[in-house]
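Hi W., the D-glutamic acid complex you wanted:
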Amino acid sequence: MSERPIGLLDSGIGGLTVLKEARKLLPNESFIYIGDNARNPYGPRSAEEIRRYTLELVQFLMDRQVKMVVIACNTATAVVLDELKGSLPIPVLGVILSGSMEAVRHTKTKEVGLLATQSTVDSSYYNQKMSEMDKSVRVTSLACPEFVDLVETNQYKSEEAEAIVQAKLSPLKEKNVDALILGCTHFPLLSPFIKKEMGQKVRLIDSGALTAEQIGQVLEENQMAAAKNSPVKTEIYTTGDAQLFRAIAGEWMEDDELEVNKINVEGLKLDAE
Ligand code: DGL
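Structure:
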């Protein structure tokens, strides 16, 4: 058993979709979250940059004695998860495997849609994982960098957001997809509009709840879960604007008391490569 916190990271706001579900499912656990809003978005960046930034965030969490690292960002998962699995002394989880499994399990038409960042689409990580599970699944991928921006600027509920989602998804509607992966942790905030556009027959796959379940399993397997009724705490850090972060996070997490701290990018350093 361990009362040490679970660490989560993202390029910004998106990983809160995982944190929200994890807090619900694992009420005895404490969490430390870091969002790299100052350097958001990661999606258009090179793999080398994404790798370096992610390793800095991991180091930040390791310095705070987390017992597990959750890469709550698809873009970072695709680039650096496999490397981290081989090098970190604690368990590390990404967000891509659980969504891939769920999509393959759900699809009857064998047509799966993927909404993600440009980097995740280019990596073909989802395609690889799903084809390892079922070769007959076809994936139609759409890079949606505009969606990340709508969330980061707190405009995800606006009429403009609805119009952008509508325009963006129209090519997908011609396909016979029955499962649509929200392959960027920012996208569940836009799911009311995505759902409206795609209709009832398309199942939206959000890795938040699925990853939270996986965190629970890893805690059990490693006998790391906190004891019942442990004192819990959620600490949030952002490299960006703490006030804006608090406004978006408070509403999304339905928690007015969230503590959001600012950390300068210059304060994020790697010990050694
Ligand atoms: N939330 C991130 C993801 O899941 C990335 C958004 C971005 O920084 O481009 O891919």
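The chain has two domains: 6-94+209-267, 96-207.

W.
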